[in-house]
Amino acid sequence: MIESTSYFALFGLPETFAIDLPRLEQARLAVQAQVHPDRFAGASERDKRLAMQWAAQANAAYLTLKHPVRRAAYLCERRGAAVDAERNTAMPAEFLQQQMQWRESLDDIRAQGDSAALQALRAQVLEQRQSRLAAVEQALDVAHAPERAAQEVRALLFLDRFIEELDRAQDALMSR
User: pTM here?
Assistant: First the structure.
């Protein structure tokens, strides 16, 4: 295994956002069987170290491809459009406005302790997430527009963090 091998090639999958998850799982098991460090127990120290590196790379590849937002970010980078969410926070004004509205709604929900409103907000955010995942698939697999996909990934990263925040708020409401 060479570090420059794409994660998709490692598992024998086409380099597309749309992915066959059962096939990924089967490929992961096959690769794991080949590179698992236990297979190299009697090998030289160098071979043991290489086996550990191979297993770690296979695990990182699997976790990246299994998670749709990580997979999208990986594809964007491979196609020359780094997501760079730490430094590039540019978002359309409409999405920024939506973020502000959601945050205000969450503040109101917390103040009122309204679990039903929190569930409704979470459903709305999850719907937005699904829509953006579809937009990523369109941008990467159909339109071949990695820059547009990278912008969607930045929005998805916000949505995933916000969903986690909503889940913590739900836990807090339930513990009252």
Answer: 0.87
